[in-house]
Amino acid sequence: MTHILEISSLRKAYADGFEALKGVDLQINEGEILALLGPNGAGKTTLISTACGITTATSGTVRVGGFDTVENFRQARSIIGLVPQEINLEPFEKVINTVKFSRGLFGKPSNPALIEKILRQLSLWDKRNNQIRELSGGMKRRVLIAKALSHEPRVLFLDEPTAGVDVELRRDMWEIVAELKRDGVTIILTTHYIEEAEAIADRVGVIASGEILLVEDKEKLMARMGKKELEVQLSAPITEVPENLMSDALRLSADGSALIYTYDTKGERTGITQLLADVAAAGLVLRDVVTRQSSLEDIFVDLVHEGEAS
Question: Which residue numbers delimit the ABC transporter domain (predicted)?
Answer without folding.
Answer: 5-234
